[in-house]
Amino acid sequence: MMTKAAIAVLVLGAAIAAQGCGIALNALRSSGGPGALNTNGDSRIIAAICITGFDSCESVAQVEKPTDLEAWAFTYKEAQTGPYGIPAGEVPITLYIVGQKEGCDRAEARMAALKGTGVGMKGISEPCHGPFYFEKDR
């Protein structure tokens, strides 16, 4: 179960990652997508990158067979800006929330609440769906 603090860390980490600050690309090391299992306490989020502010980041690969790393995904649109603050389109960002679907629903609701608050979140483009399965790269 994701706590309010864990969801806040998710949102802040995603916002920081989307801005390109303090991230380490991990997807290149992974044999499948999306690439990085970010852990902070009991909260685990799989993304294409290691997210700043999490306790650990491990390389993972998506697999077809059920595993202990079951995740549910949602996709949101992040606004991009060019020089001088000129709007430059949107980028879809998919986050995989490890655990039960209810945790994904809560994280999605928290992200949706950010729409129009100035953090660049433009809306949910694909609601929680899954499950997806992952295993840690060796």
Describe the overall structure.
Helices cover 21% and strands 46% of the residues. The protein is globular, with a radius of gyration of 14 Å. It is an alpha+beta fold and 138 residues long. The chain is built from two helices and eight strands; from the N terminus they run αβββββββαβ. Residues 1-9 and 11-32 have low confidence and may be disordered.
SSE map:
Elements (H helix, E strand, L loop, with lengths): L3 H16 L4 E2 L10 E5 L2 E5 L1 E2 L5 E8 L5 E13 L5 E12 L2 H13 L7 E16 L2
Antiparallel strand pairs: 1-4, 2-3, 2-5, 3-7, 5-8, 6-7, 6-8
At a glance:
By secondary structure, the chain is α+β, with helices and mostly antiparallel strands. The protein contains 2 helices and 8 strands, in the order H-E-E-E-E-E-E-E-H-E. The strands form 2 sheets. The protein has a 6-stranded antiparallel β-barrel with strand order 2-3-7-6-8-5.
**What is the overall number of helices?**
2
> What number is the mean pLDDT?
77
Low-confidence stretches: 1-9, 11-32
The end-to-end distance, rounded to whole angstroms, is 27 Å
The amount of helix comes to: 10-25%
Task: Label this structure with key terms.
disordered N terminus, six-stranded antiparallel barrel, two-stranded antiparallel sheet, 138 residues, 46% strand, 8 strands, alpha+beta
